[in-house]
Write a structure and sequence with these properties.
The chain is α+β, with helices and mostly antiparallel strands and 241 residues long. The chain has 6 helices and 9 strands; from the N terminus they run H-E-H-E-E-E-E-H-H-H-E-E-E-E-H.
């Protein structure tokens, strides 16, 4: 148990953060995720998953007498990832992913279909032109890198530690689930989004933050050697052997 405690305890599934990073070649209009709304989208993400790892395999047989066919890996396989979001009263997460999805198919190239945001403005809104063309964009025009960070609490913040981070490259939404609405008991509106990506990179936290905090604490306590057990906090005490 002391070894588990020295690692900060057990990991909890409730600790994670996400972030989308759009590259310099992305030409998607900056709406619903920019100018401060990105923090709102990050905060309202209440469900995520660390992507799985899987290999395509082939088989070889006849290596040795009596040995059955042996499977060996040939390539890496990447599946989709699902993200779930709570919605604020302005439905910013739903607007962001719908706008992103529409842009892939050139639905909002000229202008976004907007109204006053009131009921009367909504019922008088008009659909886009019936003869509009859905022309697919190039991947570089809309793809982003999605960071899924597994976080753990630390001394200074609830998400101070990030032992592992998955970076989903060329990520984009390919499906937005239906958002259920119903009379009855009130529930927070949720939207679930499924993302495809080309492959992912894993960044491993090396625990360097512990060394920095230890060095700072050592400086604050008058160069006391905090890397060894000690019997007190005042200068001149003898560390326990």
């Amino acid at each position: 148990m002391s070894k588990i405690g020295s690692k900060g305890g057990m990991s909890l599934s409730t600790g994670f953060d996400i972030k989308f990073q759009f590259g310099p070649n992305v030409i998607m209009p900056r709406r619903y995720y920019f100018d401060g709304d990105d923090d709102l989208v990050h905060m309202l993400c209440d469900e995520a998953q660390l992507p799985n790892v899987q290999s395509a395999t082939a088989q070889v047989s006849g290596r040795y007498q009596g040995e059955t066919a042996m499977q060996y890996p040939t390539s890496r396989l990447y599946t989709d990832v699902g993200l779930g979001f709570l919605c604020d009263a302005e439905l910013v997460p739903l607007k962001f992913f719908t706008h992103w999805y529409d842009f892939i198919f050139s639905e909002n190239d000229v202008d976004v279909n907007q109204n006053s945001g009131e009921f009367q403005g909504a019922v008088t809104a008009s659909p886009n032109a019936i003869n509009r063309v859905n022309r697919l964009k190039y991947l570089d025009d809309y793809a982003a890198t999605c960071y899924i960070m597994k976080t753990e609490p630390g001394p200074n913040a609830a998400n101070q530690r990030a032992p592992i981070t998955f970076m989903l490259e060329n990520c984009y939404p390919y499906a937005i689930d239906a958002v259920p609405l119903a009379y009855g008991s009130s529930q927070v509106t949720r939207v679930n989004v499924n993302m495809y990506y080309s492959r992912h990179t894993v960044s491993y936290g090396d625990g360097a933050w512990k060394k920095r905090m230890l060095a700072q604490a050592q400086q604050d306590t008058g160069a006391l050697d905090l890397t060894r057990p000690y019997t007190g906090t005042m200068g001149g005490v003898t560390p326990i052997a």
